[in-house]
């Protein structure tokens, strides 16, 4: 069986990423939520806590914490303030919101 290497996209098969309905580009809001979620997860891991332990220790709802870490939601202003205070001892963690 002879295999042929592809040297580039086949004519007619190339699609513009901006028009790909199965995988559209992220919005600014989605990017902001994802970035905040990654920063929160880094902070939690630096503290060597499970999501449940982190939520219990700092008084967050575990389901909300999961939504924040997965980028489905952003913490509200009060929660962002608490997260910023927690991260004061961990400068490698980034800001938690706009």
Oligomer: single chain
Series of H and E elements:
HHHH
Radius of gyration, in Å, reads 20 Å
The structural class is mainly alpha
The CATH topology of one domain turns out to be 434 Repressor (Amino-terminal Domain)
Main beta sheet, described? none
Which architecture of one domain does the CATH hierarchy give at level 2?
Answer: Orthogonal Bundle
Low-confidence stretches: none
What does this structure look like?
The protein is mainly α. The chain has a domain at 27-87: 434 Repressor (Amino-terminal Domain) (Orthogonal Bundle). It is built from 4 helices and no strands. The N and C termini lie far apart (56 Å).
List the helices and strands and how they pair.
Elements: H1 28-46, H2 51-58, H3 62-69, H4 77-87
Which labels suit this protein?
98 residues, mainly alpha, 434 Repressor (Amino-terminal Domain)
Summed up:
The protein is an all-alpha fold.
């Amino acid at each position: 069986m002879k295999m042929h290497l592809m040297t580039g996209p086949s004519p007619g098969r190339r699609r513009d990423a901006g028009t790909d309905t199965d995988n559209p580009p992220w919005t600014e809001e989605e990017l902001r939520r994802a970035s905040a979620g990654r920063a929160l997860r880094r902070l939690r891991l630096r503290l060597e806590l499970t999501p449940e332990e982190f939520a219990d220790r700092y008084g967050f709802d575990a389901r909300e914490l999961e939504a924040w870490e997965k980028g489905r939601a952003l913490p509200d202003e009060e929660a962002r303030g608490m997260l910023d205070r927690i991260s004061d001892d961990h400068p490698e963690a980034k800001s938690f919101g706009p």
